[in-house]
Amino acid sequence: MPTIYEFSVQDSSGQQIHLSDFKGKWLLIVNTASECGFTPQYQGLEAMYQSLKDKLEILAFPCNQFGKQEPGDNEQIKQFCDLKFNISFPLMAKIDVNGDNADPLYRHLKSEQTGILGTQAIKWNFTKFLVSPQGKVIKRYAPTDKPEAIEQDLKKLME
Asked: Model-level pTM greater than 0.85?
């Protein structure tokens, strides 16, 4: 089974990002959408990032598979995130997280941490995966799990 560090992804500007660049940091990987009821979580994610950025990296992956709530292209999504939430953590290129065209990273995340009743499919926007500094996928959070609660979990794990 590959580790998280064997994957590369594209950021919103098309640059190749090697996840091995994040060795030694916690990672929170989130599928996002601009027109979702959970979109205000960007604010909590940014606050958590500012609080823990020495030890944590947040990677946001826009996805349009849930209610077509991410219709824009990469540039439009980046502008939205910059203007509305002023995020400073990395915004990746828009991807699929389910189905035949699911990004290989998401295939790995889902196989490492299944959802309720062992399902692998992502059910909605703002599903989050926590990855240890050693590259192990250790927890899957539901869209309803707020960044503030995840931050409390993380602070305990970092002690």
From this structure: yes
